[in-house]
Amino acid sequence: MTEDHVQPNETTVPLLHCVSAEETLAFWRALGFEVTYEQTKPYVYLAFRWSGFELHYGGAPSGVDPSAENTGGCLVMVDAVAPYHAAFSEAMRRTHGRVLARGRPRMTRYRAGASRFSIVDPSGNSIVFIQRDEPAELEYGGSKRLRGLTRVLDNARILREFKNDDLAAFRALNSGLRRHGDAAPAVEQALALAGLIELSIALEKPELVPDWGARLTILPLTAPERERVRQAVAEPAVLAPWLPGTN
Fold first, then answer.
1. Is the pTM of this model over 0.90?
2. Is residue 49 helix, strand or coil?
């Protein structure tokens, strides 16, 4: 029987621009992707597969700035993002000795409980892995249902995880802690300070860390609160000098 109507079994494959075929091939191969098609002449066309999804690349359009970012990308919807971040982190460490967190290519940090992270490829495309049950609504500036430092923390989370804007998150936490810190519970102050420590390192402002750390050290926190603060950053080890019990 010939079907004469649309079947709901479509597959979409993102077609991304490629500035350097050599760098793109090396990057995705290092992350464990299979190269299913490779052509560099007379024009560039590359295809990769990993797990259940594919990425395809064509030559960058004329006029594209090779140094620009966020000029293309795609969303990869998954059941849980943590295993993906762990797999790519392991592959990066195996190839580069570390997780690529700055420059291009790179992968954004993953905090326990987060619902997304991004990989920025050598051409500046962003491949965003998103948990399917991620909340549909985001309130930039922090949820209007929240107040004080709680709202500041929510806004910083959105800036870091959804906008990938570390500088804006740093500024939000810094100003918010000044405005609301004295009236906030100790654990919220600690969460803000932990975020500032992590962001100061990411933004290459290590001279600011000792002050944030000294303030964190003197806060009266229970054991569960200390664990909550540790889980609020991607690499709990950065808090080790300031938070007892952190490895």
1. no
2. strand
Q: How far apart are CA 197 and CA 210, in angstroms?
A: 8
Could you list the residue range(s) of the whole structural domain that residue 188 is in?
A: 148-239
Could you tell me the two tokens for 179? Answer: 């405005």
**Amino acid of residue 124:** G
Q: What is the chain's mean pLDDT, rounded?
A: 90
Determine the Cα–Cα distance for residues 177 and 165; give it in Å rounded to an integer: 18
* HEC letters along 17-28: EECCHHHHHHHH
CATH code for the domain of 112: 3.10.180.10
Which residue intervals of 116-244 are DSSP H helices?
A: 148-161, 166-180, 186-202, 209-217, 223-231
Predicted pLDDT of residue 102:
82
Q: For 57-80, how does the pLDDT look when each residue is reduced to its tens digit (9 = 90+)?
A: 999 877 666 666 767 899 999 999
Q: Which long-range contacts (C-beta less than 8 Å, at least 24 apart) are formed by 199-208?
A: 199/160, 199/166, 199/169, 199/170, 199/173, 200/170, 201/238, 202/101, 202/102, 202/109, 202/166, 203/166, 203/167, 203/170
**Total domain count, the chain:** 2
